[in-house]
Design goal:
Strand content: 25-35%
Radius of gyration: 14 Å
Shape: globular
Largest sheet: 7 strands, antiparallel
Distance between the termini: 10 Å
Structural class: alpha+beta
Order of helices and strands: HEEEEHEEHHE
């Protein structure tokens, strides 16, 4: 079931543009982080305060059909807003990795499982290691798994 409600695009123009072009092209265009060549996917979620629908491009960290959501915020001292949204509504999230979005359920990982996902994340996007060095907080990792029909 799609995340329904009023879609409120990101205040950041580059994010708005990327999401729009990615969705319009079914993931054929705007599918990398700017011009880096590192692939992204689009996550759709509900805002914890407004209830509005938000969409964010995150690095594509996929393993056996599951996707990591790395709450790095570039190594900032605080978590990204989307992290709090997903924590509030973990069953109201969608992933678009290609032409069609699909429903997922999200959970935060810890311990050895987090270590494994962190290794995959850094392999997919090496700057994550630098981001962790920039901040005193432990960067959260969530895993999105496709919902069963």
């Amino acid at each position: 079931m799609p995340v329904e409600g009023e879609y409120v695009p990101s205040p950041d123009k580059w994010v708005r543009d990327q999401v729009e072009e990615y969705e319009a092209s079914g993931g054929k265009f705007a599918n990398t982080l700017l011009d880096t060549g590192w692939p992204i996917v689009i996550f759709t979620m509900r805002g914890r305060k407004s209830g509005n629908v938000h969409k964010v491009p995150l690095m594509r960290v996929e393993y056996r059909g599951e996707y990591a959501m790395v709450a790095s915020k570039g190594g900032a001292p605080e978590n990204p807003t989307w992290y709090e949204n997903v924590k509030a509504y973990p069953d109201d999230v969608m992933v678009q990795d290609g032409p069609e979005p699909f429903d997922v359920e999200v959970r935060e990982v810890a311990g050895e499982e987090k270590a494994q996902w962190w290794e995959r994340a850094v392999a997919a996007y090496p700057p994550y290691a630098d981001y962790q060095q920039r901040t005193a907080r432990h960067i959260p990792v969530l895993v999105a798994k496709r919902k069963s029909d």
